[in-house]
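ligand=manganese (II) ion
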Amino acid sequence: MLTTKAREVIRCCQLLAECSEEPGFTTRTFLSPPMRNVHSQLTPWMEGSGMTVGVDHAGNLRGVYAAASPASPRLFIGSHLDTVTRAGAFDGVLGVVLAVALVDLLEGRRLPFTIEVVGFSEEEGVRFGVPFIGSRALTGSLDEDLLGRRDAEGCSVADAIRDYGLDPSCVGQARVEGDLLGYVEFHIEQGPVLDNLGLPLGIVDGIVGQSRLTVVFSGAANHAGTTPMSARRDALAGAAEWIVAVERLARDTPGLVATVGQIRALPGAVNVIPGRCQTSLDVRHPDDAVRSAAVASLIERARAIASGRGLEMQWDTHLEQRSTAMSPLLTSMLDRAVAHGGFPVHHLSSGAGHDAMIMASRMPAAMLFVRSPQGVSHHPDEAVIEEDVAAALAVGWQFLEEMARSGRWST
Ligand code: GLV
Ligand code: MN
Ligand code: MN
């Protein structure tokens, strides 16, 4: 039965992957039109499983499966429905679809706690440079600053919310209140650890901290044919030198990963020296002090390179997310559920960011990883193995059973 359900889950993820801003690929950023298709495909299934479904004013899809009795505590299960540019079918979406499948498996049986399934509107940070818009709304940290942040077309987060037919002045209503039991997220590992060990599942101990910045080099645009090499102030050449320095520092610092994933050179003509070059920087490390020191050193390096080349350098920090430990209590419940299913109990830390980092600020949070074949993610080749998805369903089921038996609410 779980194999059939796993097949359904995978098929659903693959269908949702067709909801895209770009034909032939899966690209779905914050509240872009295809997100509406995702919402309308998931809603009937969620309602059919016994949930009351709505979209909050931050664009999160929320399905409430009520407890056996009113005023019971609430367990949140979810992940995100947005994607990176040219994504695979499973990052984020698998966690939402698995959560719906788990509720579906209950076949109407009510538990001593409410389950709320959340499909977060935004986790990747692609459109606005800042991730976790959806989960920030649930934890009450989607502030005016973030609502005013603009995408490359000049559209603000608040505009995007309005364009979707929602009301940015009501995002406060998305904040979770009451007796919060915890948050559990199922997610593909997005790395090679489980695949290399031949394991279907892994339990997350903690999620590394991350910094995201924009670094801009400014020089002077001029004619590519007539400007002598000695008289140039080439912003792109300065950025290139710095990008190599970013890679070198990360290679030389154990545990550090650093990525320049975006680069925009202006005016962007084959025969014009680039006068301006904007880059992104993403830096991660399990130890927040190491990460902060690395960021400081990379800014200093950018300054030195710019000054040696007669360029200006400006930088702006969009994200300083501390590393986050998962809840020992919920994690030990996942351990037992994994062992109960006959799977090896393996703990690992997450190099990717997750909504669980944000939810952990309001309630105990835990995560279960599903093996990513070849460790491929943020890529159309992202995959899952049907048996692994069935294993995750078995663990989720057992986790719910243990929580239902634990008796915290049997007063
Ligand atoms: C999200 O997937 C991230 O870690 O960038
Ligand atoms: Mn992702
Ligand atoms: Mn994700």
